[in-house]
Every structure is written in structure tokens, then in C-alpha cells.
Amino acid sequence: MGEVKLIGTHQSFPCARIEWGLKIKGVEYEYLKEDLSNKSDLLIESNPVHKKVPVLIHKGKPIAESLVILEYIDETWKDNNSHSLLPQDPYERALARFWAKFIDEKCVISVWGACVAQEGEEKEKAVEGAIETLSHLEKQIKGKKFFGGEKIGYLDIVAGWLSYWLSVLEELGEIELVNAERFPCLHEWGKNFINTSPIKDCIPPREDVLAYFSFGINYVRSMAPNKA
């Protein structure tokens, strides 16, 4: 068990990605819960550049950043009795990486921006921008059960936060971005994803996620200039 360790926090969806990947691959691991308000020496030593979770430690060697870790898991445990997370075809694999980067650099950022935006025109523009960004994922999932086909793959894991964490952000931001009417395919995918093992086995309590995001949103809003 000590060969593989995961430094993380259960409320964080990048950390959930790694748990999902490890469980799909059938890899046993030790979870080292991190207190982000008082970061451990192990975290700082393992990820001295960003000092962020998640960090995977395999045979004493640390790997940081969730997308990088997922690829490492897929390549390291190829022979486990499980399917590959990334597509085998080079073109399809490149596309999966493109959309994973799009999700982290565009979708996450635009959704967060819509949640923390001040009421009024700023909020309206931010919500419109987030909806436009998410519309690209709606097109990608159309006609499929999962982004990876019939089985959960790399891109499903990367987008997995939309199936649970998004609703918390919508509640805190008092907005609605994804529903069955606006994005029927993405909405259906989210239900399929979150109700599949082992995904549903690694979901933190909603109240914990609410508290986790509420702190961040309140902090950002408190730092915003007063337009009154």
C-alpha cells in the first residue's frame, strides 16, 4: 500500500480525478489528507513550485498536476485488468488532450468567473461566456454515453467536476448553467457519470464542498473593488 500515496483533499475535484483514475485502474493507494490552511512539509517538498494538491507519490517520487498525474497512471499501470484511460489512436489521444486543456483553461475559469461576478451587467456577461464555453462540450458528448465511448475515459474524468461540483458553484453563485433543456446531452452524461462505480464512491459530502467553495468565492468578492 505504501508504494502509492495521494496527497489531497476530498473537496477538491482535481484530487477526485486522481482517485477515480486509480480506482478504475485497480491501484491501491494511501490517501494523505492535506490541510490547505496549514500545508504540510511533505506537500511543500513534493510540489515546491505550486505547493498545491493533488500530488501522487509513487515509489517515493512525486508527480504534480492532475492532468499529468492521470497520464502517468494510465501509462504506469497498463497491464492492470482495466481499460486504457486515454484513446489508443494517436489522433483521438491528441483530441482528448486538447479538450482536457480546454476544460481546465476555459470551462473551469469561465464557470468560476460567472460564480464570483458582481450582480448586474458583469454577471450577465460572465454567465453568457460560461454558457458559450460549455456549449462546446455539449457538441462533443452528443450521441455518446461517455466522452470515452461506452466506458469512462480520460476526458470523462477531467470533465467529471461538472457532474457534481458544478451544482454547488451554481448554488453559491445563484446561477444556472447546465440543465436538461439547455444542454440535454451534457446533462445526461453527468447523470451517467456520477452514478457509475467507482465514481460515486469518491464523492465528498455536499456540505463540505459548499464550505470549501464558499470560502473562496467570499474571498474573491471581498477583494473586488466597490462599484457603489
Automatic annotation (TrEMBL):
Respond yes or no to whether keyword Cell wall biogenesis/degradation is given for this record: no
Q: Which GO terms describe its biological process?
A: glutathione metabolic process
Function text? Is involved in the conjugation of reduced glutathione to a wide number of exogenous and endogenous hydrophobic electrophiles.
Protein name according to UniProt: Glutathione S-transferase
What are the entry keywords?
Cytoplasm, Transferase
Q: Which Pfam families match?
A: GST_C_2, GST_N
Residues forming the GST C-terminal domain are 89-212
